[in-house]
Amino acid sequence: MKPVVFSVLIASAFALPQLQTRPFYSIVRYDAAPPLNGAYNFVFETENNIRQAEEGVPGNNAEGSTVVQGTYSYALDDGSVVEVRYIADENGYRAESPILPLSPANPAHVEDLIRKAQEEDAQGIIFDDLGFRIN
User: Fold this and answer.
1) Which of 16, 39, 58, 97 is 20 to 30 A from 22, comparing alpha carbons?
2) Among the residues of the chain, which ranges form H helices?
3) pLDDT value of residue 59
4) pLDDT digits (tens, 9 = 90+) for 66-120
C-alpha cells in the first residue's frame, strides 16, 4: 500500500500547474489588403522581431488552387536572424533558407537508374503496375 500512496504523491507533484508565465509580445505592424478575386496579401511584425509577409493569387490550373509565396523571419538565441522564403503552388510547398538542411547528392546507382528510366521513356517502353514490360 505504501508504494501506491508514494506513487500517487509523486504523480500529484508532477501534475501541478507550472507557475512560469510566458512573455507576451505585441504586434507592432500589421498590414493586409482585403481579398480581391481570390488574391490577398498581408504583412505583420512583432516586437520580438518575428516577421511574415505573404501573398496569394489564384493559380492557373483546373483545381482553382491558390499560389502562395512569402517570407518569415525570426531571431535565434544568439541574436542572428533566420529568414525563410517559401512558395506553395501546384508543385507543392518549397522553402529556401540557409538554416534548412540540404539533401545529399544521389548515389551513382540512383543516377544510373534515373538515366535508364529516361532512356526507356524516350524509347516508348511502358511497364504495368507490377513492373512488367507491356510493349
Assistant:
1) 97
2) 2-15, 108-122
3) 81
4) 899 999 999 998 989 999 999 998 888 999 999 888 888 999 999 999 999 999 9
Grid cell 483545381 — which residue?
63
CB atoms within 10 A of CB 105: 8
Joined together, the cell numbers standing for residue 46 give 512583432
**What gap in Å lies between CA 52 and CA 44, rounded to an integer?**
6
Supply the pTM of this predicted model.
0.61
Q: Which contacts of 74-81 are long-range, i.e. CB under 8 A and separated by 24 or more positions?
A: 74/49, 74/50, 75/48, 75/49, 75/50, 81/49
